[in-house]
């Protein structure tokens, strides 16, 4: 009963609305009125390696106009941060004079540059509604599929599994009949699903234990705590990747290497996983190595506190911005599963060392 009251209170407090979407011809928050019905609009999608200026040049605008657009746009967004598949809409009048640009990389926001008598830029926050929803279910084959079978998608499943990453391995320690519940935010734009918000409460129950996670903001950020007020976070993640099929090789002093054709120590754990599965930093730390070696392939090493370090091998590639000296947070994506180096299939070779051993 207490838990139901707690949930009801959260539903009331967390239901919110975010600004109103811009519609053709309406008066915007700055008091101006823009009617696009007589404009000619062209849509561009950012291609690999393309820049913001290159997109503007495609529209055959004059150089001084392009320079003015870039200057105005830079006040609200860094043009260097545009990415593949982002969308740019350019509107001109009947004489092909520039009138408006819209940049979209997120359904919740539209970045606008307009020209009437002068250039101006602003950001439109589209209407987002937040619904608090509840689901429960039972595992048949694995936890990810069990959550997806309720009608939700894999992103919610991965958010759920990350809550309990420090308590149990959600891939190897879950079995048929285990139960779960999730109270979560679901965001919509114009009635269409946009994205998942926070998971407010989560539980997982097997034949031995009941694990619960309550979301709480302590002023320094949002964290999950158990029913006794203890933090669910630990020093190292149980498994440093989003999902995997199985543990293909365990920690052992003697393992037959399928390529070298001999027995050698394997002081690590190999996780068999789909190609390009996101790999997480197992704990907070500084990256001390990013590179390639003929055995480990593409590799990342992270230096942690108290003499610990972690190693991630056979990667397909590195996450954007990963480089030596960068500080990464526990659970941050650092790379993607591959089979570079001495590897017969897609997997992550993961090792943790203490004082280099």
Automatic annotation (TrEMBL):
Molecular function (Gene Ontology), one example: metal ion binding
Ranges of residues in domain M23ase beta-sheet core: 265-357
Q: Which InterPro entries match?
A: Cell_wall_metabolism_enzyme, Csd3_N2, Dup_hybrid_motif, M23ase_b-sheet_dom
Pfam families (UniProt xref): Csd3_N2, Peptidase_M23
Q: Which UniProt keywords apply?
A: Hydrolase, Metal-binding, Metalloprotease, Protease, Zinc
Q: Which cellular component terms (GO) are annotated to the entry?
A: cell envelope
Which Gene Ontology BP terms does the record give? Answer: proteolysis
Per its UniProt record, the required cofactor names are: Zn(2+)
Sequence ranges assigned to domain Csd3-like second N-terminal in this UniProt record = 134-252
Location comes to:
Cell envelope
Q: Provide the protein name.
A: Uncharacterized protein
Q: Say which species the protein is native to.
A: candidate division WOR-3 bacterium
């Amino acid at each position: 009963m207490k838990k139901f009251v707690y949930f009801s209170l959260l539903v009331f407090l967390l239901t919110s609305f975010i600004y109103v979407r811009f519609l053709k011809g309406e008066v915007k928050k700055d008091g101006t009125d823009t009617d696009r019905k007589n404009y000619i609009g062209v849509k561009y999608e950012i291609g690999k390696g393309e820049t913001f200026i290159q997109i503007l040049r495609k529209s055959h605008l004059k150089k001084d106009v392009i320079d003015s657009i870039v200057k105005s746009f830079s006040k609200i967004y860094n043009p260097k941060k545009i990415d593949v598949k982002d969308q740019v809409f350019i509107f001109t009048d009947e004489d092909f004079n520039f009138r408006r640009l819209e940049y979209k990389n997120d359904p919740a926001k539209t970045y606008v540059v307009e020209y009437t008598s002068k250039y101006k830029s602003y950001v439109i926050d589209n209407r987002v509604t937040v619904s608090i929803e509840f689901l429960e279910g039972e595992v048949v084959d694995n936890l990810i599929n069990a959550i997806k079978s309720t009608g939700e998608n894999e992103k919610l499943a991965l958010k759920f599994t990350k809550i309990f990453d420090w308590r149990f391995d959600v891939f190897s320690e879950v079995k048929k009949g285990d139960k779960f519940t999730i109270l979560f935010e679901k965001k919509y734009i114009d009635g269409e699903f946009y994205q998942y918000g926070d998971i407010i409460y989560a539980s997982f129950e097997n034949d031995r234990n009941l694990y619960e996670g309550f979301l709480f903001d302590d002023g320094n950020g949002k964290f999950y705590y158990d029913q006794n007020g203890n933090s669910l976070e630990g020093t190292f993640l149980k498994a440093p990747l989003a999902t995997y099929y199985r543990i293909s090789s365990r920690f052992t002093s003697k393992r037959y290497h399928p390529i070298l054709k001999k027995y050698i120590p394997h002081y690590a754990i190999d996780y068999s996983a789909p190609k390009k599965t996101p790999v997480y930093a197992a704990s907070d730390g500084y990256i001390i190595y990013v590179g390639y070696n003929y055995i480990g392939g593409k590799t990342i090493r992270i230096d942690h506190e108290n003499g610990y370090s972690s190693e991630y091998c056979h990667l397909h590639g590195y996450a954007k911005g990963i480089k030596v000296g960068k500080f990464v947070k526990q659970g941050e994506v650092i790379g993607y599963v591959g089979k570079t180096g001495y590897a017969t299939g897609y997997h992550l070779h993961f090792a943790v060392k203490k004082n280099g051993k």
